[in-house]
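Kindly go through the entry underneath: sequence plus fold tokens. Please state briefly how this chain folds according to its tokens.
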Amino acid sequence: MTRSSSPKAAPGPSSQPIRLPNSPPSPRPMSRASLYSAYSFYQLDDGSQTPSPSSPNFQQLNTPGGNAVQLPSPNPPSRTSPSPTQPTQSVPTPDEYLFLGIQHHEANRLTESAMCFERAATLDGGCGVGMLMWGLSLRHAWGTAKDEKAAFRWLRRAAEAAVGDLESARNGVDQKAVKSELVLAIYEVGQCFFHGWGVAQDKKMAVSYFQVAARLGDSDAQQELGYCLANGKGCKKNLKEAAKWYRAAVAQGASTVGLAWIYKSKYL
């Protein structure tokens, strides 16, 4: 094998000593040197060692000066390159689907958000907020066909799951986050009963749900409960009790329009 960078020897039997280049040339593709470097640093598959100059896998060449040089055979023993490990793709969790669904919903991609909320509600038992959002999507036709009966079932499951999550707050779970989920789920079930969305209308049952959510600090539930008490919807009329819940909602930022009466002394 000749290299273009090596100087040619002078003609004649008495050649001058071969002059080597100052630095080795870069191996060319498919040259003997590059072929050898491709496997010489690894154990062969049959357990044999890297070929040595005395091995039959080497061939001997003579230089013009009579010096013997050992080069590897152009057909080295075959070996199987280790196959790269295929990365495993993790399946999103219900909470991750919920996060994606919220992102899609905020960007008004309702079809995509509904698909994510459904996965968040059903995958591996689902998560409470996923059930809540999937139920609301079904009730309001957010990116999916409207189905109030199915919506009610999912909202009620969300409320039940949230109650269990609230119980676990005693074991170190963030109670504020759990309570927020619990309140919203219970309030929405109350709305279903009050309006007859997906379930037979039952305003007395609605008031019971509003009471639970109101006591847990939800301002919407406090307003709804105040309205029911002030107008005798699903409960006995009680203006003083209604004023109390209206004031609680106002303390959290609710509007006071039309509610001047709740500050009269007889309702305090």
